[in-house]
Amino acid sequence: MNAKHGKMLKNEKGAILMKNFLSQLALGLEPYVPGEQPKDRKYVKLNTNENPYPPSEKVEAAIHGVAMDQLRLYPDPESTDLRVTIADYFNGLVDCESALLTANNVFMGNGSDEILAFVFPAFFTGRYIVFPNITYSFYPVYANLFQTEYREIPLLEDFSVRVEDYLNLASKGDLGADGILIPNPNAPTGRALSKAEIEQIVASNPEIVVAVDEAYIDFGGESVVDLVPKYDNLLVIHTLSKSRSLAGLRVGFAIGSDILIDGLNRVKNSFNSYTMDRIAMAGAKAAILDHDHFNENRNKIIATRERVVGRLEAMGFSVVPSKANFIFISHETKPAAELFYGLRELGILVRYFKKPLIDNHLRVSIGTDEEMDQFLKALASLI
Amino acid sequence: MNAKHGKMLKNEKGAILMKNFLSQLALGLEPYVPGEQPKDRKYVKLNTNENPYPPSEKVEAAIHGVAMDQLRLYPDPESTDLRVTIADYFNGLVDCESALLTANNVFMGNGSDEILAFVFPAFFTGRYIVFPNITYSFYPVYANLFQTEYREIPLLEDFSVRVEDYLNLASKGDLGADGILIPNPNAPTGRALSKAEIEQIVASNPEIVVAVDEAYIDFGGESVVDLVPKYDNLLVIHTLSKSRSLAGLRVGFAIGSDILIDGLNRVKNSFNSYTMDRIAMAGAKAAILDHDHFNENRNKIIATRERVVGRLEAMGFSVVPSKANFIFISHETKPAAELFYGLRELGILVRYFKKPLIDNHLRVSIGTDEEMDQFLKALASLI
Predict the structure, then answer these.
(1) Do A72 and B64 touch (CB under 8 A)?
(2) Do A300 and A229 share a structural domain?
(3) Where is the Aminotransferase class I/classII large domain (chains A, B) (predicted)?
(4) What was the pLDDT predicted at A96?
(5) Whether residue B246 is found in the same domain as residue B341
């Protein structure tokens, strides 16, 4: 038996075992692929929408303040302290006292990805939902894992969401749906709907859950969190990975009516009682409480974004109007794939999606001013 | 409309909205209930099998060594460094070099509960599995969430697992199964099978996955991790919550053939790319590397357990032989429920399961010697 033959036998045996051991469900999954985290050399990393600035200094103090002997104890499975902090934070942002959030309107998760995953079995499994055809590519992956049928609603040619497509879906038959998942701003386009537009969608679909993924809302979009007391069907999902510079700590949250939060808790408590560790909770709380750092940080990114957009347009790029910490760009003559590989050679990572409709675009995260100047310089050398 | 009427209307409306919004799946879930974490007073907490001793001091140094500005970056989604550390750790425990583990045999999760949750869609969804009728009460909860049929195999009267019931299940028709989930030692009984017995089960079921939940293995049981290179169908699940005093950090791992690890990765990457945060990974690595602390810690608990067992037997208790950091006890005359409430009054929390077959037993975690003396003293006052 030569080596090649041995390897073939091993592969055949592997394929049989895989079919024996893995469930039909698992065999049919096509997992999400996150932006690469290469270790071969140092890159200017503009490919995973990370924040270029460190988190609040108060996060360090909070994390170092966690007593190490307490780590032997399970964390609070309900993250009560953190949920109270988040409810208070949003209550502090609005003037009116008529309809306030409480901790019962808040759900914590191990990143907003985990919360989005829970949204499916909580509200969508066995149902038929809609989301835009160009959007966060994790949505169809969740749908497959949690057996949810979905229809992708095409964006307009300028990558904007047509609000009319999402109205009164409970009564539209084949063009209807039992649930809506909509990112605002959308990814990877960066385009945002206004608060009034999202409210139209929520108000016209009182019978079904409308989940609004606001991962990127803090970079210029209008959040609908303050509409939660008004609409029982509205769930808003946030992350601390972007505007609070804590991608490495894994914290996200959802805000919704107590009924929707109960739905998420049923799933979470059938999956893992303790999704939030003691240190992540302490760090997250400190980040939420540091308003000044948050505002300074996001304003810097918005300013850099606007400056870079101007420069890119002058270089012959069209840039989708962005309210996110990334921009979605294409050049009038140079194919995106070519630019992607060219930038990579020059030590700059951006994200390229080899998919219909968007395969001539690049998604570029907004880094520091220095990083963006390196990016612009590299780009200039390629066109 | 009086207040009571208004509340009724609100409840009726709530019930209708719940049916509208929650999926049939979510409406049918009966979540797991973890041991209580009361905040009303200070208790001697012997109810959630936490370790009474702090984690290794090296965990603190590792956690404080995580550069805070790195928290802005996503963690390594594959936890490569930690997986290498764990493979090396187990390789170091065996003499023979013939069949070694690599990082491809290791899967990390946000606590072993998350890994157990992933085990269901990876291997069991749509299939028919077996586990003991008295066991970790999360198993049927996972089965409901991930649409797995199951049969509970009765324990013998002394709470031991009858190995014959688990042999050759692929060919047994109605008494067979497509998967086996078995905790060793079992919970809440504490009874363990020998390594040879587990190997019999694994070897006689080569066509189906045998998942062995070794959450409590380090307190005197015999791990089957070193059988993984020999059996493609064996998955062993560990946690750092018990023997490594890190319940608050949320880290668990599974060891299995590359085929089984691939199954888990498919599910994890369809659920949440980044389940392990940067700090938890750093702390876990330090804990795994501190062999001395680990051995000292678990040996203390084993010694305390043996001493307490002797005392309890002298007091008229029967104690199920335990290889875990808890004991399962019942008294010859005093009902367990009465003792549970009596202990609670006296500031001592233990776990009582109001379930058939075990509703006259208490599960008591092994605390420090001082805590166990308080427990024994309180118990003496009640009988």
Answers:
(1) no
(2) no
(3) 42-379
(4) 65
(5) no
- Which residue among B34, B71, B125 places its CB closest to the CB of A55? B71
The answer, yes or no, to whether residue A66 has pLDDT greater than 50, is yes
Measured distance CA(A41)–CA(A34) in Å, rounded = 19
In a domain, B178, yes or no: yes
Inform me whether the pLDDT recorded for A309 exceeds 70.
Answer: yes
pLDDT, tens digit (0-9, with 9 covering 90-100), for A342-354? 999 999 999 999 9
Contact A142 B232 (CB under 8 A): no
Q: Specify whether A130 is located in the same domain as A186.
A: yes
The total number of structural domains that make up chain B: 2
* Chain A CB contacts of B76 below 8 Å: 37
The CA–CA distances, whole Å, from A77 to A81, A277, B119 equal 11, 9, 22
Phi, psi of B287 (to 5 degrees): -65, -40
Whether B322 is covered by a domain: the verdict is yes
- Contact yes or no for B159/B196 (Cβ under 8 A): no
B249–A74: do the CB atoms touch at under 8 Å? no
pLDDT bracket for residue A153 (50, 70, 90): very high
What percentage of chain A reaches a pLDDT higher than 70?
96
- Phi-psi region at B23: left, alpha or beta (left = phi > 0; alpha = psi -120 to 50): beta
Give CA torsion, residues A257, A137, A266, A275, to 10 deg.
-100
pLDDT at B96: 65
Tell if the CB–CB gap between B55 and A64 is shorter than 8 Å.
no
Locate A102 and state its tokens.
């409480």
Q: Using CB atoms within 10 A of its CB, is residue B376 exposed (0-12), middle (13-18) or buried (19+)? A: middle
Same domain, B262 and B275: yes
Angstrom distance (rounded) from CA B197 to CA B193: 6
Query: A319 phi and psi, to 5 degrees?
Result: -120, 125
Expressed as residue numbers, the domain containing B328 is 44-54+292-382
Q: Are A143 and A23 in contact (CB under 8 A)?
A: no
What is the distance between the alpha carbons of residues B309 and A312, in angstroms, rounded to a whole number?
74
Question: Nearest Cβ partner of B121 from A25, A124, A248?
Answer: A25
Helices (H), chain A: 3-21, 24-27, 57-64, 80-93, 112-119, 139-145, 195-203, 258-268, 278-289, 291-314, 336-345, 369-382
Is residue B10 one of the residues assigned to a domain? Answer: no
Shortest CB distance from A73 goes to which of B50, B77, B267? B50
Cβ-nearest to A72 among B21, B117, B248: B248
Please name the residue of chain A whose CA is at the shortest distance from the CA of residue B126: A23
Q: Is A248 close to B278, i.e. CB distance below 8 A?
A: yes
